[in-house]
Task: inverse folding
């Protein structure tokens, strides 16, 4: 019942947001100065809309707001109550998110020869030894990547990945057609249009897609990362799994192919990054490793 109520509330918010966006787009379309309106004078409705927008902006200007001590205390109290409310909802949000957990195991046939995949398919560890493995078409041969055996093209899916003790890693999702051979940059997660990821490198978190980096204002070294994919909503969200704190969300809109979990544990960096990356969801017992 809690899950249904939460989903219903989210759907309502999404519908309201869509309606609001449509209204804003209609208002913006009536504003003067667009490419089609450069050679004509704004009509009465354009001027009225512009005046309304300017009036709203002036009323929202923080510098024009005057707060006395009573109002300041009320706002402070309201803020504290909102934080308490958000904190109280964390267990519910976590329970709802974890209800989308999907069991996956890593596919050793896609793993770079310097990655050791556990027999259960739930972890990947870097080794400095180049393993003599078949050069399969689906195997990454330059980037230290590995993909999940299972893919999906519907529903919602959630995974938690343990990155405790690591200084470098990449986590994300990818289409099966991600390039896997040679030094091309598209082989890296998030560098091409086929994949989305968040990475930790040199103490900084960055979200990647299409080769575009998004620096994240995060400094804490997280131990467990959540990856939430919604195929119907066309979104990929990365979370700090313990507190369900959002790190970054990609709003794709519509996925064009099957999605796989993908990860890169990185080099060991003189034993400072030797720990494995571990998928916390229990692996399927039928994984053929």
Result:
């Amino acid at each position: 019942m809690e899950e249904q109520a939460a989903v219903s509330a989210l759907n309502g918010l999404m519908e309201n947001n869509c309606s609001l966006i449509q209204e804003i787009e209609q208002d913006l379309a009536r504003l003067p100065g667009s490419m089609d309106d450069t050679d004509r004078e704004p009509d009465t409705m354009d001027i009225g809309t512009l005046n309304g927008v300017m009036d709203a902006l002036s009323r929202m200007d923080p510098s024009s707001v005057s707060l006395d001590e009573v109002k300041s205390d009320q706002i402070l109290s309201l803020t504290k109550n909102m934080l308490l409310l958000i904190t109280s909802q964390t267990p519910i949000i976590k329970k709802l998110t974890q209800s989308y957990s999907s069991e996956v195991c890593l596919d050793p046939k896609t793993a770079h020869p310097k990655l050791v995949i556990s027999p259960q398919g739930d972890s990947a560890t870097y080794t400095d030894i180049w393993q003599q493995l078949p050069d399969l078409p689906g195997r990454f041969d330059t980037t230290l990547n590995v993909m999940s055996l299972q893919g999906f093209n519907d529903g919602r899916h959630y995974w938690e990945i343990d990155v405790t003790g690591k200084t470098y890693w990449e986590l994300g999702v990818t289409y099966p057609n991600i390039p896997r051979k040679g030094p091309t940059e598209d082989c890296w997660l998030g560098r091409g249009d086929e994949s989305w990821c968040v990475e930790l490198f040199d103490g900084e978190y960055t979200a990647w897609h299409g080769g575009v980096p998004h620096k994240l204002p995060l400094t804490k070294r997280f131990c467990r990362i959540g990856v939430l994919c919604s195929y119907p909503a066309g979104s990929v969200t990365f979370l700090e799994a313990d507190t369900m704190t959002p790190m970054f969300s990609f709003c794709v809109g519509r996925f064009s192919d099957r999605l796989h979990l993908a990860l890169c544990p990185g080099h060991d960096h003189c034993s400072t990054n030797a720990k494995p990356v571990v998928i916390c969801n229990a692996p399927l017992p039928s994984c053929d490793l």
In short: The helical segments are 2-30, 44-60, 69-98. The mean pLDDT is 83. The chain has two domains: 2-62+71-96, 115-279. Residues 32 and 43 are 9 Å apart (CA to CA).
